[in-house]
Write a structure and sequence with these properties.
The chain contains 8 helices and 7 strands; from the N terminus they run H-E-H-E-H-E-H-E-H-E-H-E-H-H-E. It has a 7-stranded mixed beta sheet with strand order 3-2-1-4-5-7-6, with helices on both faces. By secondary structure, the protein is of the alpha/beta class. Strand 2, helix 3 (101-114) and strand 3 (119-122) form a beta-alpha-beta unit. It has a single domain, classed as Rossmann fold, CATH 3.40.50.150. The radius of gyration is 17 Å and the shape is globular. The structure holds S-adenosylmethionine.
């Protein structure tokens, strides 16, 4: 498919005023421990990208230590997957987005314990961060077990929409990978449809095990473990940015 890359994306499909519905549940859980409250007050401000100005022309310079490429995780929950990837890929700069402050505090605990210098955090809606990021700046994106919003009247709250897929196509580099997982097979089918409709992405699976079996460089998430203990299997989708 080389040479058929869709034109670079510079505008939103619905115009600049289109505001998506809230895709997450609560922002606060139980009271934070003193240590976590301190990390939120002191460490988080140092790791937040500064939206008050333009992003760096070379996004790899956003990190405290030089990185070869930049990966993005949307909805990292407690940050277990993000920490695993940071440990396994010390040359990669990772940006994590999560509006649930207790999850952010857990990730900060891991960053602080392990003195990791390759993670930045946006503690809000990933769509605001994506709108700020430069085009062609990210080489891998993870959306793992997004809230399924299973009731029909809630479906509009889902993260995977044509608009999100469109904006991911804008920031992902050619050849980049988009990973999606869910234990909700209706969401999996809908995600395949929505992402497959966008000419910028191709699903990479050739046989059933390519989406039924989690690859070795893709650790189990907390939500996935919970789904499995409740008897639900998951699907693991990988798309290539064309
Ligand atoms: C079901 S949890 C899964 C968490 C984690 N990925 C896992 O697998 O354990 C979905 C997470 O996505 C987050 N989320 C939902 N909408 C989001 C958005 N627009 N931007 C960033 N995170 C979002 C929620 O706050 C929640 O923590």
């Amino acid at each position: 498919m080389l040479g058929t890359q869709p034109a670079m994306r510079t505008e939103t499909p619905d115009g600049p005023d289109a505001r998506p519905l809230r895709s997450y549940g609560r922002r606060k859980g139980k009271r934070l421990t003193a240590r976590k409250a301190r990390l939120i007050a002191e460490l988080l401000p140092r790791l937040r990208p500064d939206f008050s100005g333009p992003p760096p022309a070379d996004l790899r310079t956003l990190f405290a230590r030089p990185s070869q490429e930049v990966w993005l995780e949307i909805g990292f929950g407690g940050g277990e997957h993000l920490l695993w990837q940071a440990r396994a890929n010390p040359d990669v700069g990772l940006i994590g987005c999560e509006p649930f402050i207790n999850g952010v505090a857990s990730l900060l605990g891991g960053i602080d314990d392990e003195r990791l210098e390759t993670i930045r955090i946006h503690d809000g809606d990933a769509r605001d961060l994506i709108a700020w990021l430069p085009a062609d700046s990210v080489s891998r994106a993870f959306i793992l077990f997004p809230d399924p919003w299973p009731k029909k009247r809630q479906a509009k709250r889902r993260l995977i929409t044509p608009q999100l897929v469109w904006s991911l196509a804008r920031i992902l580099q050619r050849g980049a990978e988009l990973r999606f997982a869910s234990d909700d097979m209706k969401y999996v089918r809908d995600a395949l449809h929505v992402i497959g409709e966008d000419e910028a992405f191709a699903w990479t699976a050739h046989r059933a095990d390519d989406w039924r079996v989690r690859p070795a460089d893709w650790p189990e998430t907390r939500y996935e473990r919970k789904a499995l203990s409740d008897g639900r299997k998951s699907a693991y989708l990988r798309f290539r940015r064309l």
